[in-house]
Amino acid sequence: MMKRRDFFRTVMAAGAGASVLNPLFALAEELQEFKAPPMPDQPVTKVTDRCYYILAKDPEPNPENHGFFSNPGIIITQKGVVVLETGSSVQIGEMVLRQIRKLTDKPVVAVINTHYHGDHWLGNHAFVQAYPDVPIYGHPAMMQKIKDGEGKFWFDFFQRLTDNAITGTVITPPNRTLKGGETLNFGDVTLKIHHYQNPDYDNKVHTESDLMVEVVEDKVIYSGDVAMRRIANASDGSFRGTIDAMQQWIRAFDGHTIIPGHGPHDGVALFKDHLTFFKTIWDDVAKYYEEGLADFEMKPKIMEEPFMKNVASKWPGYNSTLGKFIAVAVQEYENAML
Ligand SMILES: [Zn+2]
Predict the structure, then answer these.
(1) What are phi and psi for residue 21, nearest 5 degrees?
(2) Which of 244, 274, 303, 330 is most buried, most CB within 10 Å of its CB?
(3) How far does the centroid of ligand 1 lie from the alpha carbon of residue 210, in Å?
């Protein structure tokens, strides 16, 4: 990579004097100079006439997929386009914008981020570049996490795993808050915002900042990471919060289509599978903890459970992440006993 001093020398030699005199402009130019290549276009999945998403097939970020492994959502309303999740980089955000242009020429009028994990919002940068005044919504706990350094953490994480495929991305947090319970009106489309609250479990399902977006007229839920058929990072969430939330939402959203943050859409069966997965692990951890077993001793016993053998073992991340997942459950159980 070119050193900053060498860069300035190159710019001077090229005769771009004006930008060197203006440090901010020079910085913007430097970012352009080192912007990683574009994210190749990905096909859009249509769920209803108004609700779409871009399915990320890969379970993990890597250099080949440019860090694209979570699903951006697109809702086309009378008043314009609402975007759910923006991907892990400015390049992915720009790809989402290109796909939107194939569907409609309406402007993007709102962006909603479902939580603070970087694969769901680092692409915000592309949307403020295209629409400088666009409202970007997130939960107040998400804003706080980013203030505390979460943006930098995720930027570095993706740079490392993708071989710098997100270079040029500027960390762009939400600029509006949603706490859950709000209704947003976009003409023919009403969005209801859901946030799980139970102080006993620190208001956590996947994180304490989860927003779920219900498209009322279409009976569609964009659920972020509160449920998925994948073994993901559980260390920011709560097993008991997840079990409680799933039990409520399976009843509340029966007959709805669920579009998760990772993997293909389905009905409420997605919540049911997620519940069974979390409950199987939690109940076994409780039982084996009382028998004095350590987490690595629990793992083979948990893997013998029918749901694990028949269903969860086919999910991405099962072999690599299940052990860590169980360790997180043991930690939560231990803390709950204190
Ligand atoms: Zn997440």
Answers:
(1) -70, -25
(2) 274
(3) 9
Q: Can you name the CATH fold of 45-249+256-264?
A: Metallo-beta-lactamase; Chain A (3.60.15)
Strands (E), the chain: 45-46, 51-53, 73-77, 80-84, 108-112, 136-138, 176-177, 183-185, 190-194, 212-215, 220-224, 257-260
Tell me the CA–centroid distance for residue 324 and ligand 1, in Å: 16
The rounded distance, in Å, linking the Cα atoms of 304 and 287 is 15
Q: How far, in Å, CA of 227 to CA of 265, rounded?
A: 11
Amino acid identity at 99: Q
- Distance of CA 12 from the midpoint of ligand 1 (Å): 44
CA 225 to centroid of ligand 1, rounded, Å: 5
Q: Which helix (H) or strand (E) holds 144?
A: helix 140-147
Q: Where are the domains of the chain?
A: 4-33, 45-249+256-264
Express each pLDDT in 71-118 by its tens digit: 999 999 999 999 999 999 999 999 999 999 999 999 999 999 999 999
Q: How distant, in Å, are the alpha carbons of 18, 174, 196 from that of 223? A: 47, 18, 12
**191 C-alpha to ligand 1 centroid (Å):** 21
d(CA 311, CA 273): 9
* Interval between CA 257 and ligand 1 midpoint (Å): 20
How many other C-beta atoms can be found within 10 angstroms of the C-beta atom of residue 38?
A: 13
- Residue 31: pLDDT band (50, 70, 90) is low
- In angstroms, what is the span from residue 158 Cα to ligand 1's centroid? 14
Ligand 1 mean position, distance from CA 200 (Å): 21
Instruction: State phi, psi for 212 to the nearest 5 degrees.
Output: -120, 135
> Per residue in 264-302, pLDDT tens?
999 999 999 999 999 999 999 999 999 999 999 999 999
- CA–centroid distance, residue 131 to ligand 1 (Å): 26
Res 333 pLDDT > 80: yes
Report the distance separating Cα 145 and Cα 150, nearest Å: 6
From the CA of 234, how far away is ligand 1's center (Å)? 9
